[in-house]
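Cross-check.
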Amino acid sequence: MRSGNEPVTARSPLRLRLGLGVWGLLWALAGTVAFAWTGRTGWAIACGVLLLVVATDVVMIVRHMRQGARYQPGPDVPPYEPYRPGRTGRRRGGPPTGP
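Predicted model, tokenized:
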């Protein structure tokens, strides 16, 4: 159900990101090994750097998953508004919508 403030409180689908990250890890590792084996040092280094970047992203995704659904990125970000059934999502005092 839409609460009306999704852009503010939207969260990333972490399981999907984790799956894509693991997929990227496998391809970057395969590329690093294949290019190193065939003697293409520059490509092997590029794939190795990509492997490190993707590994760092996967570690951060797992960290966020362990922090739970109420993860807050910092003290300057307000807490999520709790879900209230029956709420229309409209805010009072907004700009007029008429012509």
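Helices lie at 6-9, 14-38, 41-67. The chain has a mean pLDDT of 79. Passed to J.P. for a second look.
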